[in-house]
Amino acid sequence: MDYIQIPFQKHFITIEDLKINYYTSPLLNKFKFIHAYFTKNSHEFDLELLSNGLQLKKKL
Known about the structure:
The protein has helices spanning 26-30, 47-53; strands spanning 9-15, 18-24, 37-38. The chain has 60 residues and is α+β, with helices and mostly antiparallel strands. The chain has a domain at 1-14 and 34-60. It has a three-stranded antiparallel β-sheet.
């Protein structure tokens, strides 16, 4: 079986005047799975602040 590699899509949100990068998977998007992968520079923000920035309910 051949696999096609599709890169993650890069997005950003602005929180407290800082640009926070996050990524989404095209495969998960295809199935309407709500998700976001953050980079290590977002560790200083709590989950509630990040989820509010994405206008989502917070989930671990």
